[in-house]
Amino acid sequence: MSEDILEQIxxxxxxxxxxxxRARERALPLCREMVQNSSKAIRSAHRGxxxxxxxxxxxxxxxxxxxxxxxAESEEIRQAGFVHDAQKEYxxxxxxxxxxxxxxxxxxGELNVAVPAYLNGLGEVVGELRRFIxxxxxxxxxxxxxxxxxxxxxIYGILMGMDYPDVVTHGLRRNSDAAxxxxxxxxxxxxxxxxxxxxxVRLSEFERRIx
Length: 211
Prior knowledge:
By secondary structure, the protein is mostly helical. The protein has helices at about 5-45, 50-70, 75-80, 80-100, 110, 115-140, 145-160, 165-170, 170-210.
C-alpha cells in the first residue's frame, strides 16, 4: 500500500472527525439551554404562570430548530444521548404545560422532536401530573384529580404498548416501570383524600341535622 493512499485516508478521517466535533460543539450549548428552559416552563405551569411557561416553550422551539440545523450533517451527533435528553425535556415541558392548562396535546411532528424523545418525555409527564394532583389535594381541590389520574393511566398504557428493544426506544421500558409506581401511589393518595372529603361532608350534614 502506497504512502499517498494512507495520507488520503487520514485526511478524509480528519475531515470526518472535524465535522463531528463542530456539530457537537454547536449542539451542546443549545441542549443545555433547552433543558434549563424546559425546567422553567414546567415550574411556571405549576405556579399558574401561563405567560412565562409559554415564553420558555417558544424559546425552546427556536433552540430546537437551531439544534436540528447544527446536527443536520452529522447523524452520529443527532443520535447522541445529550440531543435525545434535550428533546425529551422539551417534549416533557410542552406536554406538561398542555395537560395542566387543559390545552391540546402537541404531537411529535409539531414539536419537531424524535419519537423516542417524545415518548420518554411523555413518560416523565406522569411524575409532573402526580405533583399537580398532590398540590391540588393540599389545597383541598379534587375537581380535576380523577381525570388527571385517568390521563396518567392512558400514558402508561401507551408506553407499555411500545414493546421494542431499549436500543430503539432509548430506555422507554424503565420509564414505563417508573410511571406504574407513581400511578399506584397517586391512586392511593387520591383514594384516601376522596374518602376523607366524603367523610367530612357526611359529618357536616350530621352536624346540621342535630344542630
